[in-house]
């Protein structure tokens, strides 16, 4: 029998037992993204009669004299998981959400957090209890392809000129599912360097995430090459039973017009079609990027950024 000695152990057990806790909130993901940089993660739990009915894993940082909760690196969402009772009315659901959220807010306040910011999963559509207790909210958008098992329907909903890009690329390029983590990181770093940009995540972090995901059969590097073995584009995707996430993508600037980036997305969808339900592009507020996701037929989906800072932190950081 497992000896559960602390909240994180209990949360790990909960994640092992349930399939409705989103990927970025899973204990293994928090281990993967927090441990390489020696950052701390923990979890707030809400219990009833010994059963966990609410949870919020969080990434804890220390900045100067302050304790801060922020998203871990390469993490699109965190937020709250709630175990809803069956057959709730709308009013009962709202009261239940208020109870869970208020309990977690009390734990945030009791822990002495000076600044809090989380991207909530898009399935959390009620943030009123946070508003009532002094938190702020802003809305961002992701783009999601739903029911990717129907690949014919997905392709038919892609914009016609994007379809042409894919078909053109298929004649000249091929997909490679065997790119190593080393080669991917080097390719991304060099591609950014050619555009006078610096890679925004460490090799150690990427390899740690890659190792965790591959061991769990929840991650894959997908590359597009030409007949001379030149890499045109590459992406790292992760997934759970509900959704895949377009976590990192890289495009060689020399081959921007080859259609490789469109082919890469399409090959990722084909690869994932029997592994999960949806494909989350992870969104962007940049107009040109959002337009590209829309051209793939993805549905614009809002999610909340919830934040709060105490007065001392705001003054010190000039917020």
CATH topology of the largest domain: Aminopeptidase
Domain count: the total is: 2
Uncertain runs are none
Fourth-tier CATH superfamily name of the largest domain: Gcn5-related N-acetyltransferase (GNAT)
Helix content range: 25-40%
Structural class: alpha+beta
The first-to-last residue Cα distance is 49 Å
Enumerate how many helices there are, as a single number: 11
CATH architecture label of the largest domain: 3-Layer(aba) Sandwich
State which percent range the strand residues make up.
Answer: 25-35%
Order of helices and strands: HHEEEEHEHEHHEHHEEEHEHEH
Radius of gyration: 21 Å
Tell the overall outline.
globular
How are the elements arranged and paired?
Blueprint: H1 7-17, H2 27-34, E1 40-48, E2 51-63, E3 66-70, E4 81-82, H3 90-110, E5 115-119, H4 128-132, E6 136-145, H5 151-156, H6 160-172, E7 173-176, H7 181-194, H8 203-215, E8 219-226, E9 231-239, E10 243-251, H9 260-272, E11 278-280, H10 287-295, E12 299-309, H11 311-316
Parallel strand pairs: 3-5, 10-11
Antiparallel strand pairs: 1-2, 2-3, 2-4, 5-12, 6-11, 6-12, 7-8, 8-9, 9-10
Helix pairs in contact: 2-8, 6-9
